[in-house]
Predict the 3D structure of the following.
Amino acid sequence: MRFLHTSDWHLGRAFHRVAMLGAQAEFIGHLVATVREREVDAVVVSGDVYDRAVPPLAAVELFDDALHRLADLGVPTVMISGNHDSARRLGVGAGLIDRAGIHLRTEPSAVGTPVVLADPHGDVAFYGLPYLEPALVRDEFTVERAGHEAVLGAAMDRVRADLATRAPGTRSVVLAHAFVTGGRASDSERDITVGGVAAVPAGVFDGVDYVALGHLHGCQTISERVRYSGSPLAYSFSEADHRKSMWLVDLGTDGALDAERVDCPVPRPLARLRGTLDDLLADPELARHENAWIEATLTDAVRPADPMARLAERFPHTLSLVFAPERAPDDPQVSYARRLAGRSDQQIAEDFVAHVRGAGPDEREAAVLRDAFDTVRADDAAREVAR
């Protein structure tokens, strides 16, 4: 069976205030053309269809258009909700849509009930694991402590239990939306840390033929059978070096796997430039970036006058301007934001405790902080679900 693995469409998202709906529509057209031209048997979409729980009308209309075009091709599509989606909203009408060959999997309770598709060699069971917010699904999966590894492990136990009841030789594909150990993150993914831990080991998914992951925006291979497709478009300058693509997967009779990357259209290249303003304006080597979307980091010791306007004369698509004067690390003018770069909420809070009283939190106090952050995240997630 040949299927196309994609994820993280984020319909409705902008890129530094630049509307991306046109580029997203171009991607949908490319997806449909690939399905037709490469004779794809099924499409899997591993979450974050929308960029937010209540998407703009134009994004909903684009999603509707995508579903109609895929249904018109007669190619089954299996998709799950991600952490950006409202599972309830995305799943509305799932029973009716299912009849058209569009299979929406948004309910945690249904993780062990696959979409079963057949090819000349037998059945392929597609199991949809929507994004599982640990604090909201711990009762469903009866885990003692809410955490990503615990709930995903319990969900996969249901998958393996169902698979064991099926005919010998039944092949299996799991769609999941998670941060798996070994994956490389970018700046455009929403943090899903719980208890100080975001990542789950790839071994959680043992026992199936292919795991189609969503959440991380870079296309990457965790193992031969565990892969991220990445987002079809760049949504942050940290993705400037990404090659945006989808996985075209051939799953053989005996579970043998062949995966090919299919490139996605690029609306405009990205470039991250760094240097003094005068150097960026004069350097002939930068001519190749004059039509790109630009993030410029200025290293001038003193902030120059009208930097954005001057940059735009050479780089008309400059979208982001960062000031990072080159100073010694112990210079008191080093910004607070730079000192905090790359540190988690937990680390920042523990540093604050150490600053205030001269000693960091002990193990019990650190656990209290973790529980507080987890409660806030769970409350935020519950509010999004309720919206």
